[in-house]
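Input record (one chain):
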Amino acid sequence: MSPRAQARAPKETAKQAKVDTYRRLIMESGEQVFAEHGFDAAKIQDIALGAGLSLGTVYTVFPGKTEIYTAIQAQRGAEVLREIQAAMLGYQGVLECTLGGIQAYVRCLVERPTYLRMHLREGLSWTQRSSLRTGEEVATWERGMELAVGLLKVGIERGFFFADNEPTVLLKMMIASHQVQLQDWLDRGAQPATVDALIQRMQDHFRRAFVAPLQDQRSAPPLQALAAGGR
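The corresponding structure, as predicted from the sequence alone:
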């Protein structure tokens, strides 16, 4: 590295650190504004105010509110999917893996209540790709659907889950139930002390609606490859 480049490196590092800080502040504020007002009614001026930055500074980091929304969805969606996959790796059987995935999914969302409000604020069905606004949302949705459909398919083939519907339809039914129950949790005050009970209700509902009688279930080999995204 030349002397000139060496002299420039610390300045570039400091500049990037400042941009990263601005980006974090804008996304945190944007999440709050989108949660309170929804995407259409959200104003970038309010995002700037919440971030403690000038409007001009916000525009140097993001071209507009669509890009802020996209960045939030990309980050949060990746976090949710990563935590679910990590949790599923800790279980051996189909049923245990599914229940563990539900628990991880719920905890990941309730630990990010502002994002959860933002995600629910639009009033759109989580089961439909057409309701998503950005390519990042679609990509994350598709990865999550593929993982869950694969698990349900294995469960049906091995006699763990009812086979009265295609795995994709069963998953959409489960997602719709989760969306309703998470909205109800928010409406009731989003109390951290009630999270364990919420998870239990959601797992119990899954057992009642999707799990075949015990005598019809067969033992199954570990599912680590599936949880990791393999086949």
